[in-house]
Design a protein that fits this description.
It is a single chain. The protein has helices at 9-18, 22-29, 40-51, 54-76, 89-105, 110-121, 134-146, 150-162, 168-183, 187-190, 238-243, 245-271, 281-289, 295-298, 341-353, 372-377, 391-400, 471-488, 502-509, 515-527, 591-604, 612-618; strands at residues 203-208, 211-218, 221-228, 231-233, 303-308, 311-315, 331-333, 388-390, 416-423, 428-438, 445-457, 460-464, 537-540, 543-547, 552-556, 562-564, 569-571. By secondary structure, the chain is of the alpha+beta class. It folds into four domains: 9-183; 188-365, no CATH class; 372-488, TATA-Binding Protein; 506-618, no CATH class. Helix 17 runs antiparallel to helix 18. The chain is globular.
Length: 623
């Protein structure tokens, strides 16, 4: 219930808009806080223009400060509390626009204000389980979804912890996933990492009575351990759970938050490759390499430091001392595309030999260069056209990899689309065309088509030839498309062979290796000698060959499909029939490689298989 002496949020905005130019007013008339129908690049461009208007930027600060002051007045009892009445609908809309403006501009005053406003608007000043304004809380979170910052994520989590409303935490969790997913696209902002109270060594200690709790932000994720009088305890001591339940929950939540922060940072760094992000050495060292929380991610990656103009020094901080370099020297992530094959092999040998698992695939990253066929087609690539994929799986991967696409289906306009992703800090867009091929049942099948690129110009995004695309942008875009096809192709479905489209399944399921599969072969060459089944395994062309007691098996390195010697009969093994024996080191996460190794361990010891569905196939007489 707004006080008559409050800053008039909605009417003040109207007055500011009235003083703008006609073109600036048109911008506002074309926008809506929940405008999800505009293409992402147009949406961001409009807010970029709005955020550049000085008068509106000044209003945004006044409006948000007034909102925070009103909420604080509610909690002090200066304004009578009525649930959900702290702000009118018009005020919520205006504050949503103000928040988007401030978030887009990444205003330095905003973090402290969010810390006041968000938790305050999420909890009643009484013991009631209501809120001053759910509408404003969720509008501010939606604004953060559009233009996220790490500080907004922190403030939303504080609001979640503060609220007593039963349904609000679930909604906040759902929105936080979107906020954090979008944060990786604002690379410079995402690199601003909070310390969360950790010391320089990445450790946080807390005394709870006679017990000490220690949270460690390590390479394998955050760990929470307990001790008493210097003696380690196996789990949370019951007295600490009983006497300090809030503190125990806070520590557990902190460990989870560290893991989330690590994941967000890793995704931001990976997404920043195409932008060729190059922070100065002093900032990189202080805010990333030596940061209490971020260091666990950053130190396991290979970096290049420009020690002299044009001279780049590659370093892996986990093993190497940082070089002497000017404070303003540029720093960038090393990429195999910019290196010679011998150097790439050396890094791969080091990482495998030291059993270092990188936060994402870097040393073993696939690279994709322009092919002669693509030079011929000029404006588009057919490299990944003509595949049949499980559509809903591919659509989920689009979302996970920050691609946008309309959901296809048997409805008007749902037959085809182009999934898109913006790269190189908004300068390039890649489009991956696909169409429905079969919707006769719940498992929709799509066919893949061309990959095209567009570049930003004064007239918006315009189509460009493949030769114009920067090599790193081309490589990273093609890598994503290869990933989509490789992980969702029906060729990798062990039970598809009994369905239709058998010729495609046969050709793709045992065909030439794609870039990801060639990388799997490279990894296997290094780790096979270390495995307990090494004497039963060899690499032969496209396959890992496993010699069992009953038969010899060829596991395709792309699809993980299996054929048996001597007649190449197909062997259907449903995933997860058996896990690899013992711990198998992999330098990066790859579910398909883990599946191949799982099948290899199973088949190397085929005499001990008890699954009748597998044994029947193995013991069937050769044709």
């Amino acid at each position: 219930m707004p006080d008559e002496n409050d800053f008039a949020v909605a009417s003040e905005e109207a007055a500011v808009l009235k003083g703008l130019t006609e073109a600036e007013q048109v911008l506002f008339r074309s926008m809506h806080p929940s405008d999800t129908y505009a293409p992402p690049d147009r949406y961001a461009e409009r807010w970029r223009d709005i955020a550049a208007i000085p008068a509106y930027a000044a209003y945004a600060r006044r409006a948000l400060e007034a909102a925070a002051e009103r909420v604080e007045a509610l909690h002090r009892g200066v304004i009578p509390y009525v649930a959900e009445k702290a702000f009118t609908a018009d005020e919520v809309d205006a504050l949503g626009r103000a928040a988007r403006t401030a978030l887009f501009r990444d205003e330095p005053w905003l973090p402290a204000l969010l810390d006041r406003l968000l938790p305050g608007v999420a909890v009643a000043p009484t013991a009631a389980k209501t809120l001053p304004s759910q509408a404003l809380l969720f509008e501010l979170v939606r604004a953060g979804r559009d233009f996220p910052t790490p500080e907004l994520v922190t403030a939303v989590r504080a609001a979640r912890a503060a609220t007593r409303h039963g349904g609000v935490p679930k909604q906040l969790d759902k929105n936080l996933k979107k906020v954090e997913a979008n944060l990786v696209e604002r690379v410079e902002v995402a690199l601003r990492q909070p310390t969360l109270g950790f010391g320089p060594d990445g450790v946080l200690r807390r005394e709870l009575g006679p017990y000490e709790a220690v949270v460690t932000a390590g390479a394998g994720g955050a760990t929470l351990t307990w001790s008493k009088d210097g003696r380690a305890l196996r789990s949370v001591p019951a007295p600490a759970r009983r006497d300090h339940p809030a503190e125990v929950k806070e520590l557990r939540d902190l460990a989870k938050r560290v893991d989330i922060q690590h994941g967000t940072l890793a995704r931001a760094l990976e997404a920043g490759w195409t932008a060729d992000m190059m922070p100065p050495y002093a900032r990189w060292r202080a805010e990333l390499a030596e940061h209490p929380v971020a260091r666990a991610v950053v130190r396991r990656l290979i970096w290049e430091i420009e020690t002299a103009p044009g001279a780049w020094w590659a370093v892996l901080p986990e093993f190497d001392a940082l070089p002497d370099a000017p404070e303003d020297a540029a720093v960038r992530l090393w990429h195999p595309l910019r290196s010679d094959p011998e150097t790439v092999e050396s890094w791969r040998d080091l990482i495998t030999g030291r059993e270092l698992r990188q936060p994402f695939k870097q040393a073993f990253r696939e690279i994709y260069r322009l092919t002669p066929a693509e030079e011929g087609t000029r404006d588009y690539s057919n490299r990944f056209a003509g595949h049949l994929v499980h559509y809903r799986r591919m659509f989920a991967l689009f979302r996970a990899r920050a691609w946008t696409s309309r959901l296809l289906g048997p409805w008007d306009g749902g037959e085809e689309d182009a999934a898109s992703r913006t790269l190189a800090a908004g300068e390039w867009t890649v489009d991956f065309r696909h169409a429905l091929a079969d919707w006769s049942d719940d498992d929709l099948i799509a066919s893949t088509d061309q990959v095209r690129f567009r570049r930003r110009t004064m007239r918006g995004f315009q189509e460009a030839s493949l030769a114009e695309v920067p090599p790193l942008v081309l490589s990273e875009a093609m890598r994503d498309v290869d990933l989509f096809v490789g992980l969702t192709s029906i060729a990798a479905d062990p039970e598809w062979r009994d369905g239709g489209r058998r010729p495609y399944w046969e050709q793709a399921g045992f065909g030439e290796l794609n870039g990801t599969a060639r990388t799997r072969r490279d990894v296997l060459e290094r780790i096979l000698p270390r495995l307990k089944i090494a004497d039963r395994c060899t690499l032969d062309g496209r396959c890992l060959v496993v010699r069992g007691e009953l038969r010899t098996y060829k596991i395709h390195l792309g699809s993980a499909n299996i054929r048996m010697a001597p007649d190449d009969a197909y062997l259907c093994v449903v995933p997860a029939s058996r896990k690899p024996d013992g711990k198998v080191f992999l330098p990066f996460e790859d579910d398909r490689l883990s599946l191949i190794l799982s099948k290899a361990f199973l088949l190397a010891d085929d005499a001990r298989i008890t699954d009748d569905s597998i044994l029947t196939q193995i013991k069937r007489p050769s044709s």
